[in-house]
Amino acid sequence: MDKKFLVLIEVEDVLGPCPVHKKGDKVFIDEPNTIVSKTTAICTRAFPTLSTFVMCFSEGIETGLQGVPLFVKCPATALGPVIFKISKIPKEEKNESV
Amino acid sequence: MKASEMFRYKLEVIAKEIYPVCPVYEKGDRMTIVEPAIIVEETDAICLSFLADLLPYYRALSRGVNPEKMGLKTEGDKVLIECHDPGGKYADYPTDGGTVVFEIRRTPITLEDLKKYIKFDLENFLLQMETVWVKRRQMYQEKHRKR
Predict the structure, then answer these.
(1) Is residue A97 one of the residues assigned to a domain?
(2) Count of structural domains, chain A
(3) A69 to each of A8, A27, B96, B114, how far by Cα in Å?
(4) CB contact under 8 A, A73 and B84
(5) Which domain holds residue A67?
(6) How far apart are CA B92 and CA B83, in angstroms?
(7) CA distance B28 to chain A (A)
(8) C-alpha torsion B61→B106→B114→B59, nearest 10
(9) What letters, b where the CB count within 10 A reaches 16 and e where it falls short, cover A14-23?
């Protein structure tokens, strides 16, 4: 369970009404543990999608377009959508960043 | 058809719009779900990433929950859902992929319809399972009565 990276999911933007998230919300994950004390909100509709990226990022493997943060949106069409940004934080930087 | 027979909806998830490309779906491609199965014979393509997007919704849609209560837009009796990739439709958030908008058509299915999708004898299965369910229920109730 000794992962090299924490995973940070941030709400980059909220493009329409959302009952859960506001811009700047954060979810911190020390895979497989969600660090609840540092997490501001979690949407059960978006999380299944977001969780598919967590294991890769926790091992330092970033997916997506090179040179651009990984953006993921929620699947809703009548709300939002909410745009999430996923990134990794080396664990040695944990105390400064988290 | 009696209301009691209409216990589920078949879901046909159809790629409606593609912004601008998708490595899996072409416009008009279909995935058919009869909860909890994907009906492969009635499916053109399956994107695992999109499945994760759909997972929170498919059971509720199959059981008749109002899509608008789940934050999904409707067009008549069709439900709209988008994949998680903002790259094509939302230009401010570039990715290496594209966005697909799907429409979901829901068709009520009866037990009789369901037989078409199940490879075994459904009535016999339900009969056998009823015995199993009764035993399980009794075991649970006995265990919790002792506490």
Answers:
(1) no
(2) 1
(3) 12, 16, 11, 45
(4) yes
(5) 5-92
(6) 17
(7) 19
(8) -10
(9) bbeebebbee
Which residues of chain A make contact with B99, given a CB cutoff of 8 A?
A: 73
**A54-79 confidence digits (pLDDT tens):** 999 999 999 989 899 999 999 999 99
Sign of the torsion angle spanned by Cα atoms B133, B136, B138, B141 = negative
Residues 6+ apart with CB under 8 A from B91: none
Q: What is the 3-state secondary structure (H, E, C) of B36-85?
A: CEECHHHCCCCCHHHHHHHHHHHHHHHCCCCHHHHCCCEECCEEEEECCC
Q: Given CB atoms, is A13 within the 8 Å cutoff of chain B?
A: yes
Is A22 within a domain? yes
Structure ipTM? 0.87
Model pTM above 0.90: no
pLDDT digits (tens, 9 = 90+) for B43-64: 999 999 999 999 999 999 999 9
**What is the distance between the alpha carbons of residues B13 and B47, in angstroms, rounded to a whole number?**
12
Please compute, for residue B53, the number of CA atoms within 13 A of its CA located in the half-sphere on the CB side. 25
